[in-house]
Structure formats: structure tokens, C-alpha cells
Design brief:
alpha/beta, two-stranded antiparallel ribbon, 7 helices, 10 strands, about 20% strand, globular, binds zinc ion
Amino acid sequence: MTAADSMHQRVVRLLDFDSYKELLRGLTQFGDREQGTARNAAAVDWIEEKLRGWGYETSRVHYMYTPRPVQGAPSTGPQPEPEPREEVYATKIGSTNPGEMYILSAHMDGRGGGEAANDNGSGTALVMEIARALASPGVVSDVSIRFALWNNEETGLNGAEAYVEQRAELQGIENPTGSGHYPEPRWLGMIQHDMMMWDHGNPVTFNQALDADVDVEFQLNSAFAEQSAQLGLVLINANRLHATDYPAVLSNAMSNTDATPFMNLVPAVSLRENRRLYETGNGANPHWHQTTDLFETFSDADFTLGLNAAQTTLGAVAKLAGVRIRKQ
Ligand SMILES: [Zn+2]
């Protein structure tokens, strides 16, 4: 390891297994956090309180979402009206390049009537645990890092789409001029996390599979495919250097995730327990969108896969954004 690698490793070691689990447990107290419900709104508040508690300023994106018509309802007569929705983000401001940033994200909404523990409490807790670690005393970053917890993923990526729609054109603009304040730092890359804990093989076995891994995906059919693949390789290398238990692999068919609205604008990748199209979409997770997606369903081996994804992302971002720990 180089001296820089060792510093990044010290940063990655700020992640804590029990803290990750506790954040996940905290999210599951709200049930499945389905968009439009009081439990979803309460979860957004809870996430925001946690981020503020670690010293971050937070912001919310406000947007309108039109619920889908109830299945079987007549297409004539009253149609669903748009309703207001919200999602929260926080930013670690770069010490030398505050006007540029990496976006680390996960969707906090869920469905299925359980606790949406794995989909996607696991990704939300991952992003929050990284935010907590980066708020530790003495930790500085050259480039800004934003933690975004999307809403309305399960209804069709509406929260991430609203963010792109509202904020893409604000990138890199200092406001007020001369203030050194950039409400929307220029996007350097986007790393999404969705379903992080369960790789029990397919056919599914009781225990975490012996060859369980973190799946990093980019989309070959996107404007930034080459740059996204490069970003993916930085994650694979960070996994080799810094992940304690599980390897990571890179593939090219990213789909059905909040990185999709970003992928033609900026290098974008997604991290998951399985490849979305070929594994998740083929029955690799029997708890997906089910009442059994509960905190208690998962073992420490499962939680550890989630933590390894966090180590992978933080190792990569530490390198890309120039994160270091100052002497106190
Ligand atoms: Zn999901």
C-alpha cells in the first residue's frame, strides 16, 4: 500500500459494524416507509435529524408526484391529483474544491408491508454510516461529497428524477457570487446503493453464499459508459484494498435504479448484493418487496456484506475526493 492508500484505509476503518446495524434498525422502526405515508414522512425526518446530529446542514428537494391510478379503476371520472413529496440530502463541503462533488445515494422509501430492511434500509444505512464516519473529528475532504436519500424510487425513480430536473442546471454556480458557497457543486460522479445484504446464491440457500460479492454495475448504453466503467474500476480496486470480507465485481447492465436519471449526465454506477436484471430479477432474493423483508430476517453475515459495500464505496471516495484525517 502507498501512503495515500494507508490514509484511505484509516478513513475506511472509521466505519463501524454495530453503528451500521443500529442505523438499519432505526430505519426499520417505520415499517416499509412506503412513499406518501406518514411512516415515510417520519423516516425522512428521522434521517434528517441523524444527519444534523453529526453536524451536517441538510436540505430537502420538494417535488410533485402523481399517484398511479388504482388498478382496475375506470379511466373516465376523477383521476389522481399530484401530491407534494420530499427527500433529504446533506453535504460534506470540500476544503479545496467546494464547487465539485461526488454523490453517494440510496432510496429510503420501500414497499411490501414489512420493514423494507434490505430494500432499501440497507443502502440508506450504508450512506448514513459513511456520512457519520466522514463527520468524525479531523476528517477533511478536498472535494465535496453529498449524501442523498431519494424518495419515490419504488414508484419509478421519481425522487432522483426530480433532483436531476431541478438541480442539474445549478451545477457549479457560486451563489451568492464571491461567497465560496455552491448550492449545487458540479457533479463528478454518482454512486447508488440499493439492496446490499443478501447474496445467498440462486437457487437460494439458507446461508450467505460462499461466493457472495458486491455487484458494481454501470450501463453500457449510456452517454458516460466509459467514464462510468472507470468509476467502477476505482470501486473494484478500493474493495481489494479495503473490504474486510467480500470481493466486488464489475458488470455493465445497470438498470432499475436511481443512478439511471444521472447516467447520461455524469459517470454513474450502482452497488447491489446481486445484479438487478440477471439475479434479483430472477428470484435471487425471496424477501424482495415481501412482508419478510424485516431486520430480524438477516444474519451478521448479511449485515457484513452491507458493511463491505460501505467499505468499498468509502475507499473509492476517499481516493477520488481526497479524504484524509488531520492530526488533532
Ligand atoms: Zn430498491
